[in-house]
Amino acid sequence: MFKTNAFKENHRYQEPAAKAAELEREGSYTQAAEFWNMARQNANTFENQAWARLREEFCRNFGRRVELAGKQAMRAA
Length: 77
Hints:
There is one protein chain. By secondary structure, the protein is an all-alpha fold. The chain has one domain (about 1-75). Helices cover about 90% and strands about 0% of the residues. The chain has 3 helices and no strands. It has helices at about 1-25, 30-40, 45-75. It is elongated and about 50 Å long. The N and C termini lie far apart (about 60 Å).
């Protein structure tokens, strides 16, 4: 029974984590942060929780910078 529950938890972590990584590669940092948050909530190890939390923070911060740079570029044009 434990292995089944652990597998389900891991599976619930892997799907949003994979989607978050894909969104990061596409440059959709705000959306990626939401998926990292979902992955963190479903992580079954402290390492996965910590990794997802750090990626979420990075995506939120970097996403804000990208949005701000885009707005500044629009004003300059």
